Amino acid sequence: MSEGIRTVIVPVADLAKAKAVYGELAGAPAQDEPYYVGYDLGGGLHVGLDPNGHGKGMTGPVGYWHVEDIEASLEALLAAGAQTVSAVRNVGTGRRIATVRDTDGNLIGLLQP
Domain range for residue 8? Predict the structure, then answer.
């Protein structure tokens, strides 16, 4: 079961420049680290800037579906025809993520809070 897309990660080449642009839209970041800047926009939506995203194969923003059981969700997507891009991994504070490509090549992110 999914809670829907609650997190969007944007790959950026220059974190300082991206932070200035997104800061104009979202205000002060909730998380501000050299490896990640995140904004909580209300209503449970989070937008993050990832300076390493392009190196991870991200070509644009990726929506992350919040799921209760990431392994079960990943298995179901693979059985439906998706292909693994990145396996389940811990990204800190207990959060785990994975990404797949749908049958048209679009990235889908999974996040287990």
Answer: 2-112
- In this prediction the pTM is 0.90
Q: How far apart are CA 7 and CA 64, in angstroms?
A: 5
Name the strand (E) or helix (H) holding 15.
helix 15-26
Q: Model confidence over 6-50: pLDDT tens digits?
A: 999 999 999 999 999 999 999 999 999 999 999 999 999 999 999
Assign residue 80 the CATH number of its domain: 3.10.180.10
In this structure, the strands spanning 31-33 and 36-42 are: antiparallel
Distance CA 70, CA 96 (A): 8
Task: Supply the DSSP symbol for 72.
Answer: H
The SS3 call for residue 63 is strand
- Paired tokens of 110: 């999974």
